[in-house]
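Tutorial handout. Part one gives the primary structure; part two gives the three-dimensional structure as tokens.
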Amino acid sequence: MLIDQCAYSNRWRAVTPAAKGIFALAGFVSAFAAGTPAAALCIALLMSGTTIFGAGVPLARFARAACVPFGFFLLGSVSLACSVDYRGGDFSIVWLPNGAAPVARVVARSCAALASLLFFALTTPMIDQIALFRRLKAPETLIEIMVLCYRMLFVFSATLRDVHTAQDARLGYATPKLALRSMGSLAAGLTVQVWRRAQALHLGAMSRNGEGPFRFLAPVFANKDRDVCFAIAAGALVLSLSCL
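Part two.
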């Protein structure tokens, strides 16, 4: 998984998740508190630069992780600038009078919020995130859902790889027609395989009397107090950018 690889290989892997969470929260709050699109873009650049140059996450991996959510809210923001009108049997696109200003504000704030979330996700492994949420007294049901969804991502990835390898070994992608047919059977078979593996995972937990919250060994982080102080100072700087 791309995000997992970045979370375990970045320079700030040994930094306490509390410090990274404080800094990411400051960036997220600043994104919505920004009064102008320019201020929000400055926050987005600062959070992205911190992730790439500070934590050492490769630019290519950061771009791959950001391209899907960025494209999603970019397409969604188009509805703020224009609307589809149907009159006299013809469709027409009507640009709203104040469409540019809301779109610029939404896109800039979304970029800042996305950069803040990516900073936390790409620098903090899921196990550390779960330990942090548990210390913050998050509901155990929410934590268990996170753990199961995290586990099912790997089950889904492994199943997809196995089925695709089997199809490729039988020349299932030799021609466009065969590739289309293989993709259809892959989607159909993948649903059944993931369902069976999820059921096996559930039965395995039940057979071991899987009751109560999931427990993990939380790592010990050196210089925790120092890192938290640095994160508070950096978070204050990010919050000050929202006033520009």
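Part three, for discussion. The mean pLDDT is 84. Residues 183 and 222 are 48 Å apart (CA to CA).
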